[in-house]
Amino acid sequence: CQYETPASGITQHFQRECEHHSIRCPKCSATVLCREVCAHLLSASCNTTMHLASESEVPPCYAEEMAVLTSFKGALERQADKIAAYLRPMAVDSSTHGDRLNEISHGINTLRQELALSTRQTNDILTASALEIAASNQEVKECLATSSDTVNTFSRSVISLEDTMKDGLSRTQDSFSQIIAAVEEIKVEVKKKDQKTLDCVVSVPQHAELQEAQCVFSVKAVKSLQDTATREDWAWYDSEQVYLRGYCMSPGVFITKSDESLTLHARYTLHKGDMDDAVQWPFQHQVRMSVVHPRGEASKVLEYKPLRGVAEKRPKITSNRPRYSDGYFLLEGLISEGYAEDDELRIKWELVP
């Protein structure tokens, strides 16, 4: 039987409700299950002969009591096994919990001892710190007293020094006034000497530039100039501005078409320069232009005497009109003789006194 009930209700269930225990048939005294009694009474196996024989062998009251006790004993044993199965883990858990509680108790006792020791050490440290602070306070008080005396002495020294400095400053101001007057006199004298020195310094480069009389430059892209002159009847090339004998000018060459040939003339342009006040006007220096052979074998020389025209007067704004020489070289001849090496002509320009 799998029926579950409190122990107090086992007897009632066994006697009135349970169908799984055995009882004796009231007709033939055969042992059958309670749920099969009705079927047994209707079956052919139930007969009076067997009942009588059974009754003669075992007293009915004793047999029924034995059956009840046997069934009751079996039920109690099964319930006892179940209760033991439930109680066994509880016993193990109780033992485990007891060990854990002992460990916790031991840990608490150890912690209590450590806290007590730490508290005593902390109290000792605080006591020592309090004593040190008290001693430091006493030292600070003594130092403050000493410092107060030192500050008073220093204050008196500062006041005395201030009075001394005031007297010295008054005397120094008088000396400064005398020094300033002397410095002003020296400045005036130095200014006069500086102006003389500046005039000398300016005159040195002017003198050097007045002595420079020649320059050398290269006429580049001769073939292009030749094509331009052939197509448009003229072309020119100017070098950078230079100072020759104090005149600011741009030396150059002028190529023009004459009949079926091209001629190379000297060309120059006068510009407004820094040395115009130091040179003579109008421009009268003779111009000497040389075409230098790249191998140094020979040079073609052309000299030209400027006219006294507008181009030779002192420039008023920036530059005068260009001036060309009457004399010339045949450009084809210069090229055929090897003067135009690497498509360049090397020109030497001079101003002759």
Automatic annotation (TrEMBL):
Gene3D superfamilies the record matches:
Apoptosis, Tumor Necrosis Factor Receptor Associated Protein 2, Chain A
Query: Is this entry keyworded ATP-binding?
Result: no
Q: Which Pfam families match?
A: TRAF-mep_MATH (PF21355)
Q: Looking at the record's lineage, which domain of life comes first?
A: Eukaryota
Per UniProt, the keywords (alphabetical) are: Receptor
Secreted among keywords: no
Describe the location of the TRAF1-6 MATH domain by residue ranges: 245-348
Annotated protein name in UniProt:
Putative tumor necrosis factor receptor-associated factor
Native source species: Amblyomma aureolatum
Upper lineage is: Eukaryota, Metazoa, Ecdysozoa, Arthropoda, Chelicerata
